Amino acid sequence: METVSKINELREQVKAWRQQGLTIAFVPTMGNLHAGHISLVTEAHKHADKVVASIFVNPMQFGVNEDIENYPRTMADDQQKLTAAGTDLLFTPKPDIIYPKGLAKQSFVEVPNISDGYCGESRPGHFRGVATIVCKLFNLVQPDVACFGLKDYQQVQVIQIMVEDLSMPIKIIPVATIREESGLALSSRNGYLTAEEKATAPALYKSLQWLAEQIRAGYAQQDSIDFIGLAKQAAKTINDAGLHTDYLHVCHAQTLQPASEDDTQLVILAAAHCGKARLIDNLQVNLA
Ligand code: PAF
């Protein structure tokens, strides 16, 4: 696997592949790679001739009091994992390559509505940062397809809508969340958990599973389902286990609006603090 950090090096390789008529799949990451990221590379191989990955800890998507300075950076280990997964090219730009004028003077991409609630509310400006960097990386790599993990469910919806709204000729491939045996979704931020927190953290996913079962049971019995009341109960269980729920909502799977009686494609979205880590997770519930 070749690693490049300059834009012209990336463009030259992409151009050479294009001249050979080859297709390109793209996996953007912030590094500190785990099996979830590698599953994106594995999926990417199914959709194109060449796979390009990027590692860039994007300052625009971190809030002022967030963990950008301490965000784990493990480049050598990441390169080994990407090589083993058969990645063809890795792009590792420095911030001044991506934002040469600095963040304050940088044009940005805002995807309205879908970016507003949940993680968008708890982390103001986060999805503007995500949409901007993904748009910029798409312009640099010009992939045919791009793979994103469904653990970041709202992020996938934001990117899907950005691609549609801005007519980008790129197919977005959502990839299922990889979990530990305990049910805990793999995340770079799990590295912040102590052994004790690691034992309590699976309470988040367990509560989502409980809530999904209640919804399915209510639907099967043709009962009216109290989405808000059930979500409150699930949040209480998470808090009782020692986490601190940031949000937990049952939503329409595409619009992410609060679920209504008529919706059959749902997603439960949740975030909770566990020690120093802010964990996010979700569970899709398809009723019909
Ligand atoms: O999901 C991530 O790791 C990041 O949000 C992404 C998509 C690489 C953009 O920085």
Describe what you observe in this structure.
It catalyses: (R)-pantoate + beta-alanine + ATP = (R)-pantothenate + AMP + diphosphate + H(+). The protein is α/β, with parallel strands linked by helices. It has 2 domains: 2-175, HUPs (Rossmann fold); 188-280, Pantoate--beta-alanine Ligase, Chain: A,domain 2 (2-Layer Sandwich). The protein is 38% helix and 20% strand. It has helices at residues 7-19, 35-45, 75-84, 95-98, 119-122, 126-141, 153-165, 195-200, 203-220, 227-240; strands spanning 2-4, 24-29, 50-55, 89-91, 145-149, 171-175, 244-252, 265-274, 277-286. The protein has a 6-stranded parallel beta sheet with strand order 1-4-3-2-5-6, with helices on both faces. Strand 2 (24-29), helix 2 (35-45) and strand 3 form a beta-alpha-beta unit. Helix 6 packs across helix 7 (153-165) and helix 9 (203-220) runs antiparallel to helix 10. The radius of gyration is 19 Å and the shape is globular. The relative contact order is 0.13. The mean pLDDT is 97.
